[in-house]
UniProtKB/TrEMBL annotation, chains A, B:
This is Peptidase. InterPro entries: Ntn_hydrolases_N (IPR029055), Proteasome_sua/b (IPR001353), UCP009120_prtse (IPR016545). It comes from Alsobacter soli. SUPFAM superfamilies: N-terminal nucleophile aminohydrolases (Ntn hydrolases). GO terms for biological process: proteolysis involved in protein catabolic process. Pfam families: Proteasome (PF00227). Transmembrane segments: none annotated. One of its GO terms (cellular component) is proteasome core complex.
Length: 250, 250
């Protein structure tokens, strides 16, 4: 399993991904699922991937090596896309290309073509944007009403984002809330685990502000988990007891 | 969709179920999914159901009318089962009976035989017990290590239960935490909605302590939702900002 979240606020973008992969239940490994494509001062793009690792790794390799643009015949890499929309389209073409190359064999082996990708970033001349791509290469874009997108094991960590994130949330708070969301997921699903990769990009910096891997035992994240747990306990204790009393029954 | 939770603590049992059903996305209705079978002083059993409503309603009808015991040939209802284990077995036979009667037609219509049921309660001479039945009629029993079971849309509301519920949690707190878990689910999934049915049973009372339906606008539940949201906001605000700073990069 996997959990990745992208949060797009006024101040910029946060991307968070865990690193746990499993082939079956008993073959657990650590693989990077958060990938950075950057040209400081000109563009900064991060991709977070979920689904079949062989598919997502091939997509990333195609994005480095280049995918042909069917309209122009030119081979384009993610470092050449002129806008974030065109970058998302390119990622979609890379997904399609993997399907063309491997789809039939996967199908014959009974392996589902399962991949989803968050593409977030900013290219000079445009605003920071965040997209979520599906296995067909189609995609949706994050908007200000719901300023986050999730892939993978998304349900455990959704309530805190639904409650707390708005477009006006600061970049630091967005990162903090993303980590709380990741913590909720990790506690309830062993398929999601440390280390956690994070990237933040401040609007118009056109370079990552922070590229960091949180390893097991890292003090801040440990403290965040403890404080969050303690706060939740305190919060439910502070809520009055249910006033419901048995009604007279026939 | 549906969300139901059963919580089994030392003091007794809490069962909570929403009432929203949907046939497709645009046909939303309210149906009771929490059903009580009781004989005060002798037994108190509650069933919460998820899955295809036609299946779960047929199961409940069979449990009222009786299902044949293949070993004895006798027709048994839930009010006759001598133990909670035998009650769970009987529910399993009722599920099986619905499959025998309707399974082929459902299959031909392309409808999955989808049902899951929580069976919780106490019968004189035994302890309170809680079971979760699957569509094949097989079941697992709730234990003290993880003193809750969930069916339906369970992921959104799992983190709070994982963090806060232990076997020593009081019955009032178990109800409160169950309602918080329900609230988290309702906020993140429109397929789960008010009214909410709750039943609590105190150990050895052999009768429900509380049978209540929370309607939209009910003051306590509204207040719980507001307090919980406010507490979560305060909790994440109180957590220090991430200390991560950009490392010198090549």
């Amino acid at each position: 399993m996997t959990y990745c979240a992208g949060i797009l606020v006024r101040d910029g973008l946060v991307m968070i991904a865990d690193t746990r992969t499993n082939a079956g239940l008993d073959n657990i490994s650590t693989f990077r699922k958060l990938h950075l494509f950057e040209c400081p001062g000109e563009r900064s793009i991060a991709l977070a991937t979920a689904g079949n690792l062989s598919i997502s790794q091939s997509v990333i390799s195609f994005l480095h090596e280049g995918v042909e643009n069917p309209e122009t015949g030119e081979v384009e890499t993610l470092l050449q896309a002129p806008t974030m929309f065109r970058a998302a389209q390119l990622v979609g073409r890379a997904v399609h290309k993997v399907r063309v190359v491997n789809g039939k064999s996967l199908d014959e082996a009974g392996v589902k073509f399962d991949v989803s990708i968050l593409v977030g970033g900013q290219i000079k001349g445009g605003a920071p944007r965040l997209f979520m791509l599906y296995a067909a290469g189609n995609f949706i874009e994050c908007g200000v009403e719901t300023p986050y997108l999730q892939i993978g094991e998304h349900k455990y960590g959704k309530p805190i984002l639904d409650r707390a994130i708005t477009f006006d949330t600061s970049l630091d708070d967005a990162l903090k809330l993303g980590l709380i969301s990741m913590d909720s997921t990790m506690r309830s699903n062993l398929g999601v685990g440390l280390p956690i990769d994070i990237v933040t990009m401040r609007r118009d910096a056109l370079a990552p502000e922070l590229v960091h891997r949180i390893e097991a035992g890292e003090p801040y994240f440990h403290d965040l988990r403890e404080r969050w747990s303690a706060a939740l306990r305190a919060a439910h204790i502070a809520i009055p007891k249910p006033p419901y009393r048995p009604a007279p029954r026939s």
